[in-house]
Amino acid sequence: MPDTSSPSPPLWPDASLEDLLALAGKKYALEFEPVSAAGVTLHILQIADMRERLDRAIALNALHDPLKMLPLWAKIWPASLILGHALRHLPLHLPEGGRSFLEIGAGCGVTGLIAAALGFEQVCISDINEDALLFAHINILKNGLQERAKVRWADVRSAALGQRFSVIAGSEILYLEHLYSPLLTFLKRHLAVPATGQTLPQVLLATDHLRKAESFFALAEKDFRVEHRQIGAREAAAPAPDTAAATDAAPPGTPDDATRAERHLITVHRLTPLQPKKSV
After folding, report:
1. What is the pLDDT of residue 13?
2. Rounded CA gap, 111 and 147, in Å?
3. Cβ atoms < 10 Å from Cβ of 197
4. Which pLDDT score, from 0 to 100, does residue 66 have?
5. Which own/partner contact pairs does 30-34 have at CB distance under 8 Å and 24+ positions apart?
């Protein structure tokens, strides 16, 4: 594994939005999709022919490992939007560096972008895939969030980012059981250490309600207080070809006035570090 103990340099330090779009356009057909969550609207870069890529893979019987064969990191997952919505309910006074935020396994960085738009001063959007980080960096520039957000390469099995964060978040990252233990080590290494009287740092993870990840939470309960909450969302159907919109969180069964809607049920898991018991 690579040595990542020192901070990694910026991947595209001086590149403009136009330069980065040209770079991404060499590999992918591109379009921006407007997405609304937590009271903010963002423009998120998408792969325009994702459906065609999936259809081709199925036709060729080549879909043995969709996580490796398809750029699923570019998809706007409902869990990312729900996680962004949950950020509005976090305490305002968080430890070490104010409202600092790390998104892990971020893909195109939707939750981190929402955090930056909501006012987190230091937002780090991280992933192991360089194309995902390219899309996330484009999204930062497109939405004018470069003063608050940056991208970093990070592998939870080995990375030490040299910084601690008051909030760490990740959506749909609990699908590989062999990463549960290193992920918990990574979380403990990068959570802020609060001073007396400060609000405790928090980890927020969001998954489809069917993904239980029971062994992960059994491990986590040794060091964290773990809480689970199910939240419903509806995703509006596209009003026209090649465009799409995602709505803010809403309970299942909410009437959709003008469009059909796909409904999702997401579980948000909150992990708060256990505090040492005081001796009597």
Report:
1. 83
2. 17
3. 7
4. 59
5. 31/242, 32/142, 33/76, 33/243, 33/244, 33/245, 34/243, 34/245
With vertex at residue 217, the alpha carbon angle to CA 100 and CA 182, rounded to the nearest 5 degrees, is 65
23: left (phi over 0), alpha (psi -120 to 50) or beta: alpha
Q: What is the dihedral of CA 130, 104, 124, 120, to 10 degrees?
A: 150
What is the number of helices (H) and of strands (E) in the chain?
Answer: 8, 9
Instruction: Identify the three-state secondary structure at position 82.
Output: helix
What pLDDT, on a 0 to 100 scale, did the predictor assign at position 251?
A: 42
Distance CA 254, CA 234 (A): 8
Domains of the chain: 17-273 (3.40.50.150)
Retrieve residue 106's tokens.
């971020």
Distances in Å between the Cα of 129 and the Cα atoms of 8, 39, 133, 232 are 14, 29, 7, 29
User: Phi-psi region for residue 51, left (φ > 0), alpha (ψ -120 to 50) or beta?
Assistant: alpha
What is the pLDDT, as a whole number, of residue 69? Answer: 66
Answer for the pair 95, 250: CB distance below 8 angstroms, yes or no.
Answer: no
pLDDT value at residue 99: 80
* DSSP secondary structure of 140-208: HHHTT-TTTEEEEE--TTT---S--BSEEEEES----GGGHHHHHHHHHHHB--PPTTSPPPEEEEEEE
Which residues of the chain carry a pLDDT beneath 70?
1-9, 60-69, 91-98, 196-197, 235-261, 276-280
247 within 8 A of 236, measured Cβ to Cβ:
yes
